[in-house]
Amino acid sequence: GIPQYADIEKRQVVKNILSNNNDLYEIFLVMPNGNMYFLEPYSIQQTLAVNNYAFRDYFQGAIKTNDTYLGNVHTTAAASGVRTAKIAVLVYSLKDNSTIVGVWAGSIDFGILNKELQSLNLTSLDDNTRVVYVDRNGQKVADSDVNKSTTPESFANLSSFKDATNGQAGSTIDTANNTKMLVAYQPVKVFNNTWAVLLMRPPPQ
């Protein structure tokens, strides 16, 4: 199991970061073999269903790219069932800066991203205009529509999404939720991964 008081000094540093940063709701340290070392808040650590995270894309991405990596959306196996994405960064030994001693990761608070999109003045475009952030797999990250922001959705079948994650930007008529929409799309390249932003509105008559 994971020790509750694993490295109390590190835990206190992480608590301080969380208390001063609303963009993250948890921070944790994973060992080079993928085993969880500790997680804050500890109340979340207590709900973990597994102890090894070497299979997660953020862990594999950080190791493979040797750099900061943004994972894709997944639903936690913990009791809360929170949808999240992780930002991971490698930790090297102070004695040998080529030896990996762990992976620090933090969970993005999608609520912050939703509020960012919902603060946009979209009514100047059209009452039915909607903007979404979508991960590499087409899973919705955030939504300008307050009523849909917490509902999981996939945009993986949209040609606009496929073009955006291939690095293209533009606009096209696409079918979203069985409705034809004019979709403007843009790739969002961040931390060695490519997400997309899609702006959808009814096509001109």
Description:
With 205 residues, this protein is an alpha+beta fold. It is 20% helix and 35% strand. It has five helices and twelve strands. The chain has helices spanning 8-19, 42-45, 57-65, 110-118, 159-165; strands at residues 24-30, 36-40, 69-70, 74-75, 83-84, 86-92, 100-108, 130-134, 140-143, 170-176, 179-190, 193-201. The protein has a five-stranded antiparallel beta sheet. A five-stranded antiparallel beta sheet has the order 9-8-12-11-10. Strands 4-5 form a two-stranded antiparallel sheet. It starts with 7 loop residues before the first helix and ends with a strand. The mean pLDDT is 87.
Which labels suit this protein?
single chain, 205 residues, alpha+beta, 5-stranded antiparallel beta sheet, 5 helices, 12 strands, elongated
